[in-house]
TrEMBL record:
Keyword Disulfide bond listed: yes
Family per record: Belongs to the tyrosinase family.
Gene Ontology biological-process annotations: pigment biosynthetic process
Species for this entry: Stephania japonica
GO molecular-function terms, A-Z: catechol oxidase activity; metal ion binding
Domain of life assignment: Eukaryota
Keywords: Copper, Disulfide bond, Metal-binding, Oxidoreductase, Thioether bond
Name of the protein this chain belongs to: Tyrosinase copper-binding domain-containing protein
Length: 338
């Protein structure tokens, strides 16, 4: 059976890695999920390093408005960050399962669809706040040479709503990301870092298709009602998803906040650009290389986001039904076989 959306009234304070209450306000009326009308505008997510000043103005204003909402508004910036914390730091139990078994959306086949829907609702809130139904989140294009640095709009000015102080000071632009980051900086020329990154992308996205006839090597291991959490991550979730998180977080803060820990990652606005690119990789992989699971336990897994219930994985498979797409940019790693 599929993992079911949590019961908000049983949400608990998180204790691992630290005490934090990530539970959403639970007095909300929850509506059934509906796909956006086919007539609604297509929102095209741009590469973060290619946006113009007008885009940055709209985006930073939307995030600013989100930060200014009352603290107990479920659309508030911190409340939205806490959505991630609650689904990742054991705030929810699976409904109807004994003994008590937490819901964990990482390290399994829930990773891609859960984050897709999380971004979908987050993006919709931002769009509503600025009254612009065409607004789309940017993606951090770390899979292409020109996108491998932290996008500069997140780094300067430090007064911007999308700046975050809790990041690795040595990884500010123009430093290139190391998609295989293991905690130690390599001192290698940029050209070599670029080649390493392209080879890493090839290995994680393309080789996984060549090596396996089932989608689980890329998408992650099955995780069903009653399963223990963390049955196993797919290739992309491990690298570069996890590695970019840790590369971005501040190594001098206790839990590598913000990006380096589940409970705090959503507090850094760059999280959503990182996950846009993770989501873009899923869509490229599905369209060009792989096939998604057809297992009903995957398709019928459901989640709850403000303010719609029972967001099924099956509703998330087709991004054009969700009325968004990605700016078409090069994917130079596709042929970067090491
Ligand atoms: Cu839910 Cu990038 O982690």
């Amino acid at each position: 059976l599929p993992i079911q959306a949590p019961d908000l009234s049983s949400c608990r304070q998180t204790t691992d890695p630290t005490n934090v209450n990530c539970c959403p306000p639970s007095n909300q009326t929850i509506r059934p999920f509906q796909l956006p009308p086919a007539s609604s505008p297509m929102r095209v997510r741009p590469a973060a390093h290619l946006v113009d000043a007008a885009y940055i103005t709209r985006y930073t204003r939307a995030v600013q408005l989100m930060k200014q909402l009352p603290a107990n508004d479920p659309r508030n910036f911190t409340q939205q960050a806490n959505v991630h914390c609650a689904y990742c730091n054991a705030a929810y139990d699976q409904v109807g399962i004994t003994p008590r078994t937490e819901i964990q959306v990482h390290s399994s086949w829930l990773f891609f669809p859960w984050h897709r829907l999380y971004l979908y609702f987050y993006e919709r809130i931002l769009a509503n706040l600025i009254g612009d139904p065409t607004f789309a989140l940017p993606f951090w294009n770390w899979d292409a040479p020109n996108g491998m640095a932290m996008p500069s709009m997140y780094a300067t000015p430090t007064t911007s709503s999308i700046y975050d102080r809790l990041r690795n000071a040595r990884h500010q632009p123009p430093k290139l990301v190391n998609l295989n980051f293991n905690g130690t900086d390599l001192n290698i020329p940029d050209a070599q870092q670029i080649q390493n990154n392209l080879n890493t992308m090839y290995r994680q996205v393309v080789s996984s298709v060549v090596q396996s006839t089932t989608p689980q090597l890329f998408l992650g291991m099955p995780y069903r009602a009653g399963s223990r959490p963390n049955p196993g991550a797919g290739t992309l979730e491990g690298v570069p998803h996890n590695t970019v998180h840790v590369w971005t977080g501040d190594p001098t803060s206790r839990f590598q906040e913000n990006m380096g820990n589940f409970y705090s990652a959503g507090r850094d606005p760059i999280f959503f650009a990182h996950h846009s690119n993770v989501d873009r990789m899923w869509s490229i992989w599905s369209d060009r290389f792989g096939r998604n699971f057809t297992d009903p336990d995957w398709l019928n897994s459901s989640f709850l986001f403000y303010d719609e219930n029972r967001n099924l994985v099956r509703d998330a498979l087709n991004i054009s039904q969700l009325r968004y797409s990605y700016q078409n940019v090069d994917t130079p790693w596709v042929n970067a076989r090491p």
